[in-house]
Amino acid sequence: MSEQHETGTVTTTHRVLILGAGYSGMSAAVQLATRVKRREDVRVTVVNAQERFTERLRLHMTATGQQLAELSIPELLEGTGAQFVRGWVTAVDADARTVRIDDDRVLHYDTLVYGLGSVADTTAVPGVDDHAYTLNSPQDAEVLADRLARLGSGTAVIVGSGLTGIESAAEIAERHPELNVVLLGRDEPGAAMTPKARRYLQSALDRLGVRVRSGVEAVKALPGSVELADGESVAADVVLWTSGTRVSPLAAAAGLAVDEHGRIVTDTALRSVSHPDVYAIGDAAAIRQGYGVMHGTCQGGMPTGVHAAVSIVRTLKGKRPKPFRFGYYHTPVSLGRHDAVVQFTRPDDSPRRIHLTGRMAARYKETVTASPWPTFGRMKKMPASGAFWPHGGRFTPVAEDGE
Asked: Is the pLDDT of residue 3 over 80?
């Protein structure tokens, strides 16, 4: 897009459009907008369905009626020069370089940062859409909180024994001791932890009264129960579904190259392998490292957003983007408000021997959970402060695309 100034000179404005303002999208937005705010030839626009920033790391707290701070995306973007557009992304045309918002607005871009993230997969198992709750948004969590508060007694079944399921089961059991809480999953809770850390996690769930059923698979959700693969029916007054995630089908519909899960396949710089003007970040991207494809976490999502922003700045300066490298370093799991397990990991996410438990682990987990918003604020003042994370060493060898 060209603009003519009072001097008569014509400049070309490079339009960067960032879709999604979660942990990775906000990292990209703040990092990029702050770095280019003195440039009149670059315009950064952020699109998100709501103005409130969703603290996904705390949604299990919202689900039990705990009040969280209202974090405003437009307020955080103040002073960066980024524009904010509230609306749902309903279509992407990767060839025309356009994005449709709410089916009635069209935004054009020169560079797109795709960070629409993932949600609980309620489509793979019959009945989940109709009979189960999710933690996809603060609104979803608030609806569940209201239902739990009105239940009085009964059974709450959490399907999925991953981190979200564990934290939700513990939080519900602690805040609602009058309920029977059942955690169902294929794997044992904390399966990726060391035996000692896993035993602590299990003892904490036992103390809270959570009944764990491992090695089972939920195949159907019904109005008052969950049906298992072996034919057993588990009674449930409330079902919370945390088993599996899915990404938006918009990327595949746009003609972008995606993997079998619908995530955008990227090169080493986080650009789409089919459309290099599109960067994919966070859960929406299939980012391969030396140890395999990254899984969606806040600790990995924020670095992808920062790296995409830095890569765009380098490209605007005529430089080549550097390869993205990331290594995991911990798995913190809260077990109510005053207990937790923190498993420290190698860069490939395998467990190290060291772990934290108890109140010290709870304080560590709270520090991690509370860190994104202050981190965004620091990046507004010092963009470089966001560009430090474990790069993985020998687990993430550097290789240029095509080598």
From this structure: no
